[in-house]
Each structure stands twice: as structure tokens, then as C-alpha cells.
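We modelled each protein-ligand pair independently. The example shown here corresponds to the zinc ion entry; the chain sequence is given first, followed by the ligand as SMILES.
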Amino acid sequence: MIHGLSPTRKSGAAIEADLETTAPPAQALPFRIGHGYDIHRLERGRPGGKLILAGVTVSEELAPIAHSDGDVILHAIVDAMLGALGMGDIGEIFGDSDPKWKDAASKIFVDDIYEKVRQAGYRLANADVSLLLERPKILPHKPEMVNNLKRLFGPSAAVNIKAGTNEQCDAVGRGEAVVAHAVVLLSAVN
Ligand SMILES: [Zn+2]
């Protein structure tokens, strides 16, 4: 038999059509994974300014330059959840020119997007965060930060925060910026 001439062999277009009809709908996936990244520049000595990470004030000397409260951990987690849902990114939903979000506590963004996660039939199974900044030391704040995340996602969510410096490399290493990466796993409920 000569390949390509068999009467049962399907054309590329037919195979694509089959794939479209047999691909599981998004809701049918048992798990969805997402990644998020956020960076904010830091300034020193801004009156009333403070650095908030995972809802915890870790410094009143340093403050992020941001439209909202500039919580990089929560912003990265929101983007990771949106990524897992295939719903774009945080800037599309909470625009940084919208006066509604000026100085907003980022918990609002997490609550809003986690509601979308639940509406899609998922819960957050686990989240892993990598935080990069030179100062201050994060270790003493970690338990409260993890507790805050558990409050946002419920006791069944496994959350982890890893914090490190950037070994004096680039803007983060000079203490001019703070960065967070987040990976989340959403698990279908039922
Ligand atoms: Zn941000």
C-alpha cells in the first residue's frame, strides 16, 4: 500500500477538524497550571509609603512605585491564576489607569480572580512563589505571609514562599526593584 493514497487516510484539514471536536473543553481538564511574574521599582523614604508583600508590611522605608499597593506576590499569583484559566493578564482586567484601583489593596484582585477560578469549577491546589529583593530580610515575615495566602485560598491550599536576594545583580540586586514569580496549580472540584 502506498501511503497517502489509502482511501481511509484523512486530509490535514479533516484531522484538524477532528482535533477541534475531540479536544476536551477547558473545564474538563482535571488540572490547570499557570505562571505569573511581577516587578515594581522601589523608592526610599516616600512619605506614607510602605512595602507590602503577600499582604504584610515588611518595610516603611521602601515603597513600590505602583498604581495599586504594588504587592508583587499577590500580583504574580493573580497572573498565574489568570494564566491557568486562559484569561489573559492582570493589566487587562485591573487597568493601571483606572482610578478605581488607585492604591487598592491587592487582596481585592486576588478575591475577584479566585472567584472566577471557583466559577470555572476549580480550586487552588497549590501555589509556589519566588520572591527576589535585597532588603529587608523576609524570613521573619514569612509565617504571616503564608498565613495570609492560606486565608485567601482556604486551609486546603498548599502555599510556599521562597525568598532570596538577586546576588547584587541588576536593578533587584541594587535594591531598586522587587520581583515575584508564582506558579499555581488549579484542581477541578469533584
Ligand atoms: Zn504589580
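The mean pLDDT is 89.
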